Each structure stands twice: as structure tokens, then as C-alpha cells.
UniProtKB/TrEMBL annotation:
SUPFAM superfamilies membership: Inosine monophosphate dehydrogenase (IMPDH) (SSF51412)
Family annotation (Pfam families): NMO
Keyword tags: Flavoprotein, FMN, Monooxygenase, Oxidoreductase
Record's protein name: Nitronate monooxygenase family protein
Record GO terms (molecular function): monooxygenase activity
UniProt-listed InterPro entries: Aldolase_TIM, NMO
């Protein structure tokens, strides 16, 4: 695929881009000829340095990317604003009653403060913190792509990245946002349909991809949302994309750092079990359905808090649920492709399967359609 625009842009073998918070997944995607992109939302600068150094050692001079929170505006300022004591007591009581009724034990008093502080320390959305993470990324020459998860990055950051020879992309669920990315001078856009995991819009991939491709041409577009098979990759190219961006499909791999319990829940899930919910962050995000996500839909449930307070509220609940291994209440971000994640595989095997089915699909398309 040497004539492919994305392969030429990054000097990679296949236009398969993979997002993960797990360094093992990112490294293996890159080693297999694609481009892995590390999600950094919950890393401190020190932790990110360790992760990128490890990836460097695994991939040699192959390029990879990082996903940073680089919005034009920030909703929180400093750590003090995330003090749990400022949470709505109505919400705190409702959530504690929910966990108590479920028989999920409280955190040990001797460990609670340390556990809570460690998790709360990962919830950052300030210009200063983003700048520290960016400084870390720029110290690693093999980082050739930075993706902004919350809109186009501020102009000074964009100029700084371009000065280092780094390509810059951004996620979009709307044509209007894609046009803003193009106007801002980004190098590529990732059109993410509502089928995807995490924060998404409401437009499906089948509709969104060609709309974005037409709107920002000749700017290259990566297709995201509901891709985990070769036929879906073929559809992305048929609709004008120059590559694919996959996230959820790596959850079921041996390289994924999800717990065995969480993987088993994913293997049993159907596509319809990936639901949009405000229960995690306060904004609509696609998660695995659980008794916890369902509880927020009940008549007695309070309205989810705005971002980032819903995330702060969830810290203790998640720690309690995970510690108790309360499977019916466990959840994680996952897209509707979860219905095809039925057993453990490897990152490399997933990529091989996608490419094999893609080749077969392209070769047999004319015959199957009966129109060529």
C-alpha cells in the first residue's frame, strides 16, 4: 500500500491506526506495520516518560503517536477544583446507597485516602498539565503523530508540533468540527461515528465518513467507529477514507491490560450492550452496559453531574467495584464492535485477519455485486 496517502505521510506499511491506553498494544500495532497511538488521559508526566521510553525500545525507529487532551478552552483549573468535598451530597448519598444495596464493600479506612488521592491525581485538564505531557512527547523522536481528543489544539501548540515535524490530527463527530480542524491547519482528521467507544456524537459512521471526506478534501481522513473487520475497512475506503482508526477491537487481545474479568464480560457482550451513557464523565460516552450504567437511568437516579464532577464522583465507586470484583457492576469504554470480540487473540492476529478479509472483499466485490 505504498501509494496510500497515510502510508506515505508516516512511512508505514499499512494504513491501520490503533488507539489504546496500553503501551503493549501500541507497540505491537506499530511493529506490525501500522501506527499505534497511546492514550495519555490518565498518565502523569513521569508515567508518560516511562511508557514512551518503553515503546521506543520496542519499536526502534518506527513511528507512533500519542493522544493528548489539547482543547482550546479548559473546563477545570488546577487540582483544588477537583476536591470531592465539593460534590453534591445528594449524588454522593445516592451512589453510596446504590453500592450498599449491591453488597459492594467500602474501601478499607486505612487505604481509602491514599487510593482516592492516587486516582484523583490523574484527573487533570489544565493548560499547564497538557504542556507538561507535550514536553514529554517532544523528547521522543519516534512520536510522529499527535491527536487532539477535544478539538483543534491552540495555535501555539500546533505551531510547536509542526516545528518538530510532527503531524497533528483531531477527532470529529460532526462535519462542522471537521471544517474547523481543516481551517486550523491540521494535517488529518479522524471521523468517528457514534458506534465508537467513549465520547462520540450521534451520527453513524456510514453517514459521517463520506460527509467529512467531501467537506475537508483533499485533507486525508481516517475512518473510526465500528471497525474491527476487513469488510468494514473496505467500506471505509469505499466511502473515501485513506485509513482506519481502531480502538475497541484491541480490548480482547493478549497485549491488552484489561483484567481477565473485564475481558470475559466483553467476550459475552452483544453489539447492543455498548450503550451511550453520561454515568462516567457527565457527557455522552459509549460504555459496556452494566448494573451501574443502568442505575443512572432509573427514575430515582439524580441527573449526572457536569464534566469533570461526574468523573470525580465515580472514582470511589469504580475503586469499590473493581476491588470487590463485582462483575455485574463493572464497565469500561467500548464500541459496538464488541459484538465481534468473542475470544482472546493477539494484536498481530487481529491485524492479519483485518487485512485478509479486506483483500478478499476487494477482490470479490465486483462479482458479488453483479454490477461490474
Amino acid at each position: 500500500m505504498t501509494r496510500n496517502a497515510m502510508c506515505s505521510m508516516f512511512n508505514i506499511e499499512i494504513p491501520v491506526f490503533g488507539f489504546s491506553h496500553c503501551r503493549n498494544v501500541v507497540a505491537e500495532i506499530t511493529r506490525a506495520g501500522g501506527l499505534g497511538c497511546l492514550g495519555t488521559a490518565y498518565y502523569t508526566p513521569e508515567e508518560l516518560e516511562w511508557e514512551l521510553k518503553w515503546i521506543d525500545e520496542q519499536v526502534g525507529d518506527k513511528p507512533y503517536g500519542v493522544n493528548l487532551l489539547l482543547p482550546q478552552k479548559y473546563e477545570t483549573v488546577g487540582e483544588a477544583s477537583l476536591d470531592p468535598a465539593r460534590l453534591s451530597q445528594e449524588h454522593v448519598k445516592w451512589q453510596r446507597d446504590l453500592l450498599e444495596k449491591a453488597g459492594i464493600p467500602e474501601l478499607p479506612a486505612s487505604e481509602r485516602e491514599e487510593l482516592m488521592n492516587a486516582e484523583l491525581g490523574r484527573l487533570h485538564m489544565t493548560p499547564e498539565f497538557a504542556g507538561e505531557l507535550l514536553d514529554v512527547a517532544l523528547r521522543h523522536p519516534s512520536v510522529k503523530l499527535v491527536v487532539s481528543a477535544l478539538g483543534s489544539p491552540p495555535r501555539p501548540i500546533l505551531d510547536r508540533l509542526h516545528a518538530h515535524g510532527i503531524m497533528v490530527g483531531a477527532m470529529t463527530g460532526k462535519v462542522e468540527h471537521a471544517l474547523k480542524h481543516k481551517e486550523a491547519g491540521l494535517d488529518l482528521v479522524i471521523a468517528q461515528g457514534t458506534e465508537a467507544a467513549g465520547h462520540t456524537g450521534v451520527v453513524s459512521s456510514m453517514v459521517l465518513w463520506p460527509e467529512v471526506v467531501d467537506a475537508v478534501a483533499p485533507m486525508p481522513v481516517l475512518a473510526a467507529g465500528g471497525i474491527g473487520r476487513g469488510r468494514q475497512m473496505a467500506a471505509a475506503f469505499a466511502l473515501g477514507a485513506q485509513g482506519i482508526w481502531c480502538g475497541s477491537i484491541w480490548h480482547g487481545t493478549r497485549e491488552s491490560d484489561l483484567t481477565d474479568e473485564m475481558k470475559q464480560l466483553l467476550f459475552k457482550a452483544k453489539s447492543g450492550d455498548a450503550v451511550q451513557t453520561r454515568s462516567k464523565t457527565g457527557k455522552p460516552g459509549r460504555m459496556l452496559r452494566s448494573k451501574y450504567t443502568e442505575a443512572w437511568l432509573q427514575p430515582d437516579a439524580p441527573k449526572p453531574l457536569p464534566m469533570p464532577w461526574q468523573s470525580v464522583l465515580n472514582v470511589e465507586a469504580r475503586l469499590r467495584i473493581d476491588r470487590a470484583r463485582a462483575l455485574e457492576y463493572m464497565t469500561c469504554p467500548v464500541g459496538q464492535i464488541v459484538g465481534t470480540i468473542n475470544q482472546e487473540s493477539s494484536v498481530r492476529q487481529v491485524i492479519y485477519d483485518i487485512l485478509d478479509e479486506f483483500a478478499d472483499t476487494m477482490e470479490g466485490l465486483g462479482e458479488r455485486s453483479g454490477l461490474v
